[in-house]
Amino acid sequence: MPFTPDNELELLFPPSFISAEVKSQLHPDVHIRPLASTDHGRGHLAVLSVLTVATDLGEEAWVAQFNAMRTAPKTYYSLVIVDKKSDKIVGAGTLFIERKFLRGLGTVGHIEDIAVDKEQQGKKLGIRIIQALTHISESSGCYKTILNCSDANIPFYVKCGFEKKENEMAKYA
Ligand code: ACO
């Protein structure tokens, strides 16, 4: 099945937010766009499962989460890369924008849940996802863009232009 054009989808945010430069650098077999309300059926959770447990609670529950994100204005920017031939998702990532009282009511972009299908890793999809999310963060006025990652992924993020700063703390419930 050929990939579905952006204008036939209900998207999480306007497709114009995706950098034209990143689009032009992307491999011609794939397309980058905002997450769509029908992406549960395109393997979104299967791609995320390369990261961690991505339990499938069914399409209805997935769509409810999509809608909750869509109604929070200027906050959630999840995007996907789809294979043009199969219309399946092969990469995904999210930018979450946090509003602050400090830094003159500044905003910070948090990059989360970056995942590329195992078969497609090493083809520059990951770096394009990071560049597209960083572009949204910077063009939205965020004074910094941050993320947490494993030691093994540090070289990837250095290639994406990030530097190591401070430490991550976690407390799981
Ligand atoms: N160590 C060293 N270099 C790396 C690594 C690594 N682990 N991963 C990628 N690179 C390099 C590539 O060789 C490439 O270098 P080059 O420009 O000199 O050729 C450059 O980084 C860009 O690599 P991509 O091809 O864009 O990487 P890919 O598409 O494979 O995506 C990713 C990288 C996202 C880490 C992918 O491998 C993946 O999904 N891994 C499993 C899930 C994961 O760990 N996600 C990140 C979690 S952190 C977070 O979500 C904030």
TrEMBL record:
UniProt xrefs under Pfam families: Acetyltransf_1
Metabolic or biological pathway: Nucleotide-sugar biosynthesis; UDP-N-acetyl-alpha-D-glucosamine biosynthesis; N-acetyl-alpha-D-glucosamine 1-phosphate from alpha-D-glucosamine 6-phosphate (route I): step 1/2
Keywords linked to the UniProt accession: Acyltransferase, Endoplasmic reticulum, Membrane, Transferase
Compartments in which it is found: Endomembrane system; Endoplasmic reticulum membrane
Catalysed transformations (reactions): D-glucosamine 6-phosphate + acetyl-CoA = N-acetyl-D-glucosamine 6-phosphate + CoA + H(+)
GO BP annotations, alphabetical order: UDP-N-acetylglucosamine biosynthetic process
Superkingdom of this protein's organism: Eukaryota
EC numbers on record: 2.3.1.4
GO cellular component: endoplasmic reticulum membrane
Membrane topology: Peripheral membrane protein
Group of enzyme by EC: transferase
GO molecular function, one term: glucosamine 6-phosphate N-acetyltransferase activity
Location of the N-acetyltransferase domain: 30-173
Subunit-structure text: Homodimer.
Protein family: Belongs to the acetyltransferase family. GNA1 subfamily.
Name this polypeptide is given: Glucosamine 6-phosphate N-acetyltransferase
